[in-house]
Amino acid sequence: VVCRCFLNFSDERPLKLHVYIYICKNVSQPSLLCDQVYILSRKCGLDKGLLPLSLSLSWYFGKLGRKDAERQLLSTGNPRGTYLIRESETTKGAFSLSIRDWDDVKGDHVKHYKIRKLDSGGYYITTRAQFETLQQLVQHYTERAAGLCCRLVVPCHKGMPRLTDLSVKTKDVWEIPRESLQLVKRLGNGQFGEVWMGTWNGNTKVAVKTLKPGTMSPESFLEEAQIMKKLRHDKLVQLYAVVSEEPIYIVTEYMGKGSLLDFLKDGEGRALKLPNLVDMAAQVAAGMAYIERMNYIHRDLRSANILVGDNLVCKIADFGLARLIEDNEYTARQGAKFPIKWTAPEAALYGKFTIKSDVWSFGILLTELVTKGRVPYPGMNNREVLEQVERGYRMPSPQDCPSSLHELMVQCWKKEAEERPTFEYLQAFLEDYFTATEPQYQPGDNL
C-alpha cells in the first residue's frame, strides 16, 4: 500500500492505490506477515500508509453483522473462547467483541460485548480496564477472562475473501470464450440444462449452468444478465460471466454443498434441528430483502434454487431467469414444468409477478425447510392445488413446527398481495426468532 505523502504527489495528480494480498504456495516462498501493521512512511498519520486493519489483524472482521458473526463463530471446529472483533452496528466508532461460549442450559452460543472508545482515543469494555489500542485489549483478555464469559482463546478463522469477479477484465466485459471454461464434474441435470463444477482458465473453481438450445433467447438473456451482474450481496450467488452463444453458459460462484433441496433430503441437512433451519431461512430472507430494495423480482423462489456452502451458508440462485424461459410447458404457467405449488395464485392465474408473489413462494420454502424437502401440498396435483388455494385452502402446520412459524407462513399466503409481509420484516423476524418469539422452544422428535 502506498500513500500520497510517501511519493510526494501533488494534489492535482490522480493517485491510484493498490492493495495486494500475497498467499505463498509453499513454505520456501516468502510471505507477508499479516499479523503486523506496516507503516511505509513516518510522515503518515495512522490512517495512511497502513495495511487495512482487516488484513493486518487476524481477529478483526470489519463490517460484519451480529448474525453473520454468530454463524462464523458457531461453525464446526471452533472451540469455546473463539472470538472476533467487528464494527458496531449501532454505535459509530465503537466495536463489538463476539465470543463463542458454552453452558449446560444453552449449549454452544455467542456472547457479544460492546467495546467503547474513550475521548482520549483508547478503548474499554468496562471502565475498570482501559487500553490504548485494540491489540492491547485483546492481549489482556487473552490472558484472563476478567469479567467476560471466558478468556479469548483463538481468533475465528476468516476463510478466503469472497470473489466478486473472475478478474479485472471480466468486471465490465464479462462475455468470455467458451474454451476458457473446463467442465469437470456434472452436479445436476434439470428441465432446461445441466449444472457443472468447472474451472475458468484452469485455476479458478466456478459453477457453470449450461442451458439447452432454445430455452431462452440469447439477446433477452444478455439484457437480463446485465442487471443480474450488478446485484451484489453476500446472500446471492454471484454471477461472474456468460457465454451468450447457444448453448448458453452461465458462470457463477461455486457452492460446494449443492442445492438446499438435495441438502435437506439426502445430505447433512437431514440431521439439522430447528435453530439451524430458521437461520437458513433468515439468510434467504436477507438475500430477498436486498432484491426487494433493488426493486427486482426472483419469480422462482424455492429450495431447488437456493445453494448451500460451508458452515450452512445459503445463497439465492437463478434470480430473474424464469421470465426468460420460452418452453411452452413452462410459459403456459399451468403446464407440467411450471412450479405451481410454489407460485402465488395471482402469478399462476394472471401472470402478475411481483415481490409479493416472491413472499408467497418464501412461505412455501419455509415448509420445505421444516419438512426436510417434502414436496408442498402432498397428495395433490397442480390442478388441485390451484383450485383449492383459490377457495382459501392453506397448508396445515407441519409436524413439530412451532405455531409462531406456521403463523408466519400463513401471513406469506394472504390472498391480497399487499397484506403479505415485506422481506425486510421476514428477515428481522427470523433473525430474532429464538429471542423474540420462542423463548420456551423445546425441540421435537424431528426438529
TrEMBL record:
Name of the protein in question: Tyrosine-protein kinase
UniProt xrefs under InterPro entries: Kinase-like_dom_sf, Non-receptor_tyrosine_kinases, Prot_kinase_dom, Protein_kinase_ATP_BS, Ser-Thr/Tyr_kinase_cat_dom, SH2, SH2_dom_sf, Tyr_kinase_AS
Encoding gene, per UniProt annotation: LOC109050311
Keyword annotations from UniProtKB, A to Z: ATP-binding, Kinase, Lipoprotein, Myristate, Nucleotide-binding, Phosphoprotein, SH2 domain, SH3 domain, Transferase, Tyrosine-protein kinase
Organism, as annotated: Cyprinus carpio
Family named by the database record: Belongs to the protein kinase superfamily. Tyr protein kinase family.
Catalytic class of the enzyme: transferase
Catalytically driven reaction(s): L-tyrosyl-[protein] + ATP = O-phospho-L-tyrosyl-[protein] + ADP + H(+)
Family annotation (Gene3D superfamilies): Phosphorylase Kinase, domain 1, SH2 domain, Transferase(Phosphotransferase) domain 1
Binding site for ATP: 209
Pfam families named in the record: PK_Tyr_Ser-Thr, SH2
Record-annotated Protein kinase domain positions: 181-434
SH2 domain sequence ranges: 59-156
Record's keyword annotation contains Phosphoprotein: yes
Any one Gene Ontology molecular-function term assigned to this protein's record: non-membrane spanning protein tyrosine kinase activity
EC number: 2.7.10.2
The keyword Transmembrane helix is annotated on this UniProt entry: no
